Amino acid sequence: MSIPAYGPAMRRIRGFTLVELLVVIAIIATLSSLLIPAVGMIQKLMKDVKCGHNLSQVGMAIWALRDDTDLLFPAKIHDLFLPANGLQIKGIESKLLLCPRDVKKGSDPNMGRSPSWTNLSYLHEPGCSWLYEVSGMPLGATEAGWFSYTGYPLPPGPPAPTWADGKKNQQRFGNPKPDGSYGDPFPPDLFPVIRCYFHHTWTPSNYKTTKRVQNLSWNNNVFWSITYWENDVNPLIPIP
Fold first, then answer.
1. pLDDT digits (tens, 9 = 90+) for 88-115
2. Could you list the residue range(s) of the whole structural domain that residue 76 is in?
3. Is residue 169 part of a domain?
């Protein structure tokens, strides 16, 4: 009995045709085009979360310092890392004060803000991404005008009033009402003392409506706001 030269057991497996291969490649390309933006979005959200976590950690350190020294706020954020203040963990300062979205790693004097806004670069601390609004730095003449209210002046110098003095005045007395009067304090949970602008690309128009500034509040609450946060708290306050 002869053995067939070719039978079912020896049947060759057919490979992909060129058309089938192209179809598979097209499907993979389509799935990749859908997946890659989603992965990018998740990465950005994780960076936002990390920045908020860093702000919260710094806030807790500030509160600990306030309990120990009765200071309202340190003169500089970096003062939290002085030997006397206890945050002497190797490498923590270089990581904790940076927003993961800050590609310049704390070297941007605009701190993520639009260069067309009021120049606050003198508040920039090298190695820190954020704008520290309760700094011990003296107020510039323009900024002193923001916080010196009729009937509620800033403390007279010398020394010159600081940003911490100005923000204390603002929190206590609020912003001008339509009749020019004052006296409604801002809620401490929505009153920012540290601000991070690196979560958005700012333009002359979108800063008025886009809630992409991440803040640490007077009461150690992390929250989002537009750049002019006062309008978030009270919509009757005009956006300049």
1. 555 566 789 999 999 999 999 999 999 8
2. 18-133+193-233
3. no
Predicted structure pTM score = 0.80
Could you give the CA distance from residue 34 to residue 11 in angstroms, rounded to a whole number? 40
For 27, the token pair is 């499907």
Q: What integer is the mean pLDDT of 191-217?
A: 94
Domains contained in the chain, number: 1
| Sheet with 131-132, side-by-side order of all strands | 131-132, 192-196, 213-217, 222-225
Structural domain includes residue 125: yes
Alpha-carbon gap, residue 97 to 55, rounded angstroms: 8
* Polymer length of the chain: 240
Q: What are phi and psi of 214, to 5 degrees?
A: -100, 130
The Cα 46–Cα 57 span in angstroms is: 16
pLDDT of 50 strictly over 60:
yes
